[in-house]
Amino acid sequence: MRPGGRLVFSVGRVRAGKLQGTWVDNLTLADCARLPVVHYSRDGTAWTNLLIRHGFTGVGCVEVPARRAEANLTLVLTATRPRG
């Protein structure tokens, strides 16, 4: 990422009552091969703190409401890599 570059990504928000953490699942590809996928389950504060701890500035987190009551909320995180 270039200095001054902007990082933007979205993740599902931790469901109420669920623990934060990391786990590995297997994704089955079209050719039936299995690919391990690491899932990171964090709330907005944890993601924001992680970005700040790694030197990003202008860190922001916006919660996007779900369209259906049973769907997960999405977090959209933004940050900037400092110049020089």
Strand order of the largest sheet: 1-5-4
Write the element-wise H/E pattern from the N-terminal end onward. Answer: EEEHEE
Low-confidence stretches: none
- N-C termini distance: 12 Å
Gross morphology is: globular
Rg (CA only): 15 Å
Which structural class best describes the helix and strand composition? mainly beta
Helix content: 10-25%
Q: What's the rounded overall pLDDT mean?
A: 86
Largest sheet: 3 strands, antiparallel
Count of beta strands: 5
Number of helices: 1
Number of domains: 1
The proportion of residues in beta strands is: over 45%
Task: Explain what the structure shows.
The protein has 84 residues and is mainly beta. It has one domain (6-80). 12% of the residues lie in helices and 45% in strands. It is built from one helix and five strands. The chain has one helix at 44-53; strands spanning 6-12, 21-28, 34-41, 57-64, 74-80. The strands form two sheets. Strands 1-5-4 form a three-stranded antiparallel sheet, covered by helices on one side. Strands 2-3 form a two-stranded antiparallel ribbon. A hairpin with a 5-residue loop joins β2 and β3.
Sum this structure up briefly.
This protein has one helix at 44-53, and strands at 6-12, 21-28, 34-41, 57-64, 74-80. The protein is mainly beta and 84 residues long.
Task: Quickly list its features.
84 residues; 45% strand; three-stranded antiparallel beta sheet; globular; mainly beta
List the helices and strands and how they pair.
Blueprint (H helix, E strand, L loop, with lengths): L5 E7 L8 E8 L5 E8 L2 H10 L3 E8 L9 E7 L4
Antiparallel strand pairs: 1-5, 2-3, 4-5
